[in-house]
Every structure is written in structure tokens, then in C-alpha cells.
Amino acid sequence: MKSSLLSLAVGLLAGVIYGMANIHSPAPPVIALLGLFGMLVGEQLIPLFRRLLARQPVTLAWFRHECVPKISGAPPPDSKNAP
Prior knowledge:
The chain has a domain at 34-73. The chain has 4 helices and no strands. The protein has helices spanning 2-20, 29-43, 45-53, 60-72. It is elongated, with a radius of gyration of 18 Å. The model has no long low-confidence stretch (mean pLDDT 83). The chain crosses the membrane at residues 29-49.
């Protein structure tokens, strides 16, 4: 929670500085958000490829437990369903 508030505060400060300097954001908000989403998804390709190279199964349960929380920021599902 602390890092989220700090991130929000720094973002607000950057927005205020941009506004005072009459500078517009370098990317439209939708484009910037898509770029961030791409970064989050891209980070999960490495564990996926490592799992495939180790000839371990890539199941929906594994994806939901290992990747979805890192992409969405939601807590992982309970450990009973973990691979």
C-alpha cells in the first residue's frame, strides 16, 4: 500500500510539474497504459519459456497462480489450487 501511495504521489507531482511548464504528456494515456500492460505481460514470457524448456506442463492453474497476480496485482489464489 505504501508503494502505491508513493507512486501516486510521484505521478501527481510529475503531472503538476508538466502542467506548470505547459508540457503535455509524451504519449496519449491509452497508448501509455497499453505499453505498461505489454511490459507486465512480457515479464511473464521468461518464466513461461523456462517452464517449457524444462518440459514442465503449462496449465491454466499454473498461469493463474504464477502469472495473473504479477500482471493484475491481485493476490494469488489460495495455495490449495497451486500447481
